[in-house]
Amino acid sequence: MIPPIKTCLQLMDRYGMLENIKDHSIVVAKVACLIARGLHKAGEDISITKTVAAALLHDIGKTESLKFGGNHSEIGRSICLENHLDEIAGIIAEHVVLRDPSLEGGCSETEIIFYADKRVNHDQVVTLEERLAYILKRYGRNQAALCHAIRLNFELCSKVEKKLFMKLDFQPTALADIIR
């Protein structure tokens, strides 16, 4: 099932999503919706409803992860499955790291959420470089191997950006202005 926006907001409350994470998720949903609409208009087989729902719930497992530990993407996937949201569970599982990236062919809702999340720092649309700097500082813990993995993930995200935007009629630099 793909939940409507009202259900997504109810789930955010039910799972105690912190206000700052809600704010982040709403901006990610705006970015994702803009991209999904543009890709749909360009002929891509993209579900705008699925994209928005997955964007709103991409961090549904974050509060539990902050309180008790664990991978928030996997916690979020489990929450979705428990609530019969099978159609977005896989997207949420891959919003931090794409498991099987394909840089050719059609675009997917999973790629859109993966990318949109990397463009929003707190509740502001930022560049990939700005978000990378924040992620390295916040989560890198000065561990060389972890920082290297984060950088590789953002290199992939840059490639996903190129794939998405080659089909859109606006550039990545315009996202922040369009969202305002």
Nutshell version of this structure?
With 180 residues, the protein is mainly alpha-helical. The protein is 66% helix and 2% strand. The chain has a single domain, classed as Orthogonal Bundle (Hypothetical protein af1432), CATH 1.10.3210.
Give me some keywords for this one.
180 residues; Hypothetical protein af1432; mainly alpha
Q: Can you describe what's shown?
A:
The chain is mostly helical. A two-stranded antiparallel sheet has the order 1-2. It has helices at 5-14, 19-41, 48-57, 62-68, 72-82, 86-93, 109-118, 128-139, 144-165, 175-179, and strands at residues 120-121, 124-125. 35% of the residues are buried. The protein has one domain (5-179): Hypothetical protein af1432 (Orthogonal Bundle), CATH 1.10.3210. The radius of gyration is 15 Å and the shape is globular. Helices cover 66% and strands 2% of the residues.
Describe the SSE topology:
Layout: H1 5-14, H2 19-41, H3 48-57, H4 62-68, H5 72-82, H6 86-93, H7 109-118, E1 120-121, E2 124-125, H8 128-139, H9 144-165, H10 175-179
Antiparallel strand pairs: 1-2
Helix pairs in contact: 1-3, 2-3, 2-7, 3-6, 3-7, 4-5, 5-6, 7-9, 8-9
